[in-house]
């Protein structure tokens, strides 16, 4: 029990009480202590469990700050005064029932209270049942009250794991009834008056290019020859026509802010009727779109453009594989149009890199699943010219819209607009990276942002196919800032664009819906500056990061689930990270990352971590494990609950490839068979 003396001490006058209270993200450690991380503040604010005021891990909270008078001398402490935004309201766990009430015990690695469930809110659940529970009421100093929203009995463990990942990152698994009812009321047919208000391009050749398993087609390309060149249209599903501002559907879309793509499912931003039916640009159907239509000459230079609402009629649905086949064989349906579009796209791409865009390549892992959604194979998705064709025209549309809106001023102020920005590399990260690159003979000029970009591109060309390629690519990406949404337009460094926004994927990204709305206001010359636009941008950036965390966690789970079938087997790998407690290895064949613990290396040598060289170095043998090194590993453990793989280094391969060290040879050399040796000597004498 806390003493009265301590209680008095906690209520001291907060520092800066006259200022607005800061808002930050609550981080609760496994020990139960909380820290509020406030953007722009150098020090996190310590919050003790009694001062959480119902805040949970990941929540955005308002905090009253005070300074500790303890030995720390200035350690910031605080009291949560308000939960501004809950990260998570749905939880998975087990129910414990009595005759008069029930408690729900959440399955969480972060400390949180049990949830009281009134018997009428149990949905018929039995004692010990696993369920999804929603918090419906929570007053400070009381237990949270919840209701069962779904029972999880007799479901596949991998299905439950994916649901848990979705929930722990703050995404709901189902749409509220009022949202579904509102969606159901939207008419199936397009009103003729609506068509008359739009540019009609239904007679122009139009097609979509998407992954083979795609269900929502939110972009299409149109093509026709005109006097002096070509007219090429980028047509985007007009989601803002169907999702009207401040409706329940709009509020739910904003709350989610993004679709979440897991290996075996999509958790969509919009109900299926919107994403897969009304707004999906399916072939041979009239669809409402928002378009950027470009007039180009024979070389592919943009001479003029038009922005506005349209109605289209897609003539064909292509997969990326089909378009790639047409590009490579120079034959197939609409081959002239596709080959010309590809020619222009490749030209745009070269121009981007010439002007400072950075050419980082990325490999995407895709899982082949059986009927129970268990992985039976892993494929590496490559970016080919078919993908680049769509990418370049989408980039052109995004950049054009952002540049057009950026010129608009209202009362001598720029219009609040959700730009997609990417800051210059962090100098603290860039300096050691440049020094590390020089050790491999790669010069790096850090005198200006332009020279940094040029150095990156030159380095990426020079390292191709070399042993250090993987390590320098990965470390180079880590020096980069994260792209975010904001009204403060600082440009997009990675793409080399002065103006950039997301316009082309409104089915799966809420910022694109915001862009469509602002663009229409500009076209109508009815400016309604949104004073909360920056707040909306921050929310969308946070939800995007949560979706990425969910996608990484689900990929990791599937990798562990897959490699469980290969315990004891050996694979080639590349060291993808190094720390004081071991090194991570990514298998070449599957791109599955696991840890080789330093404990497992202790029989061989005593290793120390050389942070500046991203390596472990043996004190006796001189053996090193550096990021980017090729190694042979054995899969020794696969923990699905922790989503963790454990590997062991296979010494013999290192000896074969490198000649080995004396210590390694000694560790692996077998003692001679004395009987065989004696027999050989006897044979020689005879």
The total strand number stands at: 33
**Fraction in beta strands:** 25-35%
Q: How would you state the average pLDDT, rounded? A: 88
Helical amount among residues, as a percent range? 25-40%
Can you count the helices? 18
Describe this structure in words.
This protein has 686 residues and is of the alpha+beta class. 31% of the residues lie in helices and 28% in strands. The chain has five domains: 15-85, OB fold (Dihydrolipoamide Acetyltransferase, E2P) (Beta Barrel); 90-154, OB fold (Dihydrolipoamide Acetyltransferase, E2P); 184-397, no CATH class; 424-480, no CATH class; 567-668, OB fold (Dihydrolipoamide Acetyltransferase, E2P), CATH 2.40.50. The strands form nine sheets. A seven-stranded mixed β-sheet has the order 11-18-17-14-13-12-19. It has a five-stranded antiparallel β-sheet with strand order 3-2-1-4-5, with no helix packed on it. Strands 8-7-6-9-10 form a five-stranded antiparallel β-sheet. Helix 2 (157-168) packs antiparallel against helix 15 and helix 11 (427-439) packs antiparallel against helix 13. The longest helix has 31 residues, at 533-563. Mean pLDDT is 88; it is low at 1-19 and 653-686.
In short:
The chain is an alpha+beta fold. It is built from 18 helices and 33 strands.
Topology record:
Layout: H1 4-10, E1 23-28, E2 34-37, E3 45-47, E4 60-67, E5 76-85, E6 90-97, E7 102-106, E8 115-117, E9 130-137, E10 145-151, H2 157-168, H3 177-184, H4 192-196, E11 199-200, E12 205-210, E13 219-226, E14 229-237, H5 239-242, H6 248-256, E15 260-262, E16 265-267, H7 272-278, E17 286-296, E18 302-313, E19 316-319, H8 320-329, H9 335-354, E20 364-369, E21 375-381, H10 385-406, E22 409-410, E23 413-414, E24 419-421, H11 427-439, H12 449-462, H13 469-479, E25 484-486, H14 510-524, H15 533-563, E26 570-579, E27 582-587, E28 593-597, E29 607-610, E30 615-618, E31 624-626, E32 630-639, E33 644-649, H16 651-658, H17 662-668, H18 674-685
Parallel strand pairs: 11-18, 12-19, 28-33
Antiparallel strand pairs: 1-2, 1-4, 2-3, 4-5, 6-7, 6-9, 7-8, 9-10, 12-13, 13-14, 14-17, 15-16, 17-18, 20-21, 22-23, 24-25, 26-27, 26-32, 27-28, 29-30, 30-31, 32-33
Helix pairs in contact: 2-15, 9-10, 11-13
């Amino acid at each position: 029990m806390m003493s009265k003396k301590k209680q008095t001490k906690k209520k001291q006058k907060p520092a800066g009480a006259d200022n607005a209270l800061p808002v930050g993200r609550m981080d609760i450690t496994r020990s139960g202590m909380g820290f509020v991380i406030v953007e722009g503040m150098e020090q996190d604010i310590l919050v003790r469990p009694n001062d959480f005021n119902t805040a949970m891990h990941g929540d955005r909270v308002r905090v009253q700050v005070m300074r500790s008078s303890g030995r720390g001398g200035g350690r910031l402490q605080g009291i949560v005064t308000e939960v501004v935004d809950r990260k998570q309201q749905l939880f998975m766990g087990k129910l414990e029932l009595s005759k008069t009430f029930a408690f729900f015990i959440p399955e969480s690695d972060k400390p949180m209270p049990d949830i009281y469930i009134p018997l009428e809110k149990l949905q018929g659940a039995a004692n010990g049942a696993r369920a999804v529970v929603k918090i419906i009421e929570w007053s400070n100093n009381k237990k949270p009250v919840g209701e069962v929203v779904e029972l999880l009995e007799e479901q596949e463990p991998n299905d439950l794991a994916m649901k848990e990942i979705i929930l722990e990152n703050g995404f709901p698994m189902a749409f509220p009834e009022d949202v579904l009812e509102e969606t159901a009321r939207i008419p199936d047919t397009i009103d003729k008056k609506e068509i008359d208000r739009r540019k009609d391009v239904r007679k122009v050749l139009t097609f979509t290019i998407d992954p083979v398993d795609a269900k929502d087609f939110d972009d299409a390309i149109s093509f026709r020859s005109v006097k002096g060149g070509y007219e090429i249209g980028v047509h985007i599903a007009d989601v803002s026509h169907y999702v009207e501002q401040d409706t329940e559907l709009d509020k739910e879309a904003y709350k989610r802010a993004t679709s979440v793509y897991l290996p075996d499912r999509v958790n969509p931003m919009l109900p299926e009727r919107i994403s897969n039916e009304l707004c999906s640009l399916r072939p041979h159907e009239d669809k409402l779109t928002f378009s950027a239509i470009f007039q180009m000459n024979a070389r592919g230079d943009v001479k003029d453009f038009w922005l506005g609402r349209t109605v289209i009629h897609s003539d064909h649905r292509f997969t990326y594989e089909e378009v790639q086949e047409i590009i490579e064989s120079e034959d197939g349906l609409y081959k002239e149009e596709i080959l010309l579009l590809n020619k222009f796209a490749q030209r745009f791409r070269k121009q981007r890199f010439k002007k400072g865009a950075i050419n980082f390549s990325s490999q995407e892992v895709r899982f082949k699943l059986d009927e129970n959604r268990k992985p039976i194979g892993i494929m590496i998705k490559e970016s080919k010219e078919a993908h680049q064709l769509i990418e370049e025209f989408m980039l052109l549309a995004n950049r054009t819209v952002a540049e057009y809106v950026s010129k608009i001023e209202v009362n001598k102020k720029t219009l609040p607009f959700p730009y997609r920005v990417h800051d210059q590399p962090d100098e603290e990260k860039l300096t050691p990276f440049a020094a590390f690159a020089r050790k491999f003979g790669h010069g790096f000029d850090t005198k200006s942002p332009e020279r940094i970009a040029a150095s990156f591109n030159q380095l990426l060309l020079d390292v191709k196919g070399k042993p250090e390629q993987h390590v320098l690519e990965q470390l180079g990406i880590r020096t980069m800032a994260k792209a975010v949404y904001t009204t403060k337009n600082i440009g997009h460094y990675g793409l080399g664009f002065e103006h950039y926004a997301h316009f082309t994927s409104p089915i799966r990204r809420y910022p694109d819906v915001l862009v469509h709305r602002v663009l229409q206001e500009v076209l109508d010359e009815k400016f309604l500056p949104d004073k909360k636009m920056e707040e909306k941008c921050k929310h969308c950036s946070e939800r995007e990061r949560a979706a990425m965390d969910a996608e990484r966690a689900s990929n990791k789970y599937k990798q562990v689930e897959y490699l469980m079938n290969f315990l004891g087997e050996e694979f080639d790998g590349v060291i993808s990270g190094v720390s004081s407690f071991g090194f991570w290895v990514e298998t070449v064949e599957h791109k599955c990352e696991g840890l080789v613990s330093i404990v497992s290396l202790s029989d061989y040598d005593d290793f120390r971590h050389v942070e500046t060289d991203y390596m472990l170095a043996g004190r006796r043998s001189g053996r090193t494990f550096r990021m980017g090194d090729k190694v042979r590993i054995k899969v020794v453990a696969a923990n699905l609950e922790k989503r963790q793989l454990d590997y062991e280094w296979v010494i013999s391969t290192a000896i074969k490839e490198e000649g080995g060290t004396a210590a390694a040879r000694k560790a692996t050399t077998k003692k001679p068979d004395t009987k065989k040796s004696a027999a050989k000597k006897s044979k020689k004498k005879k």
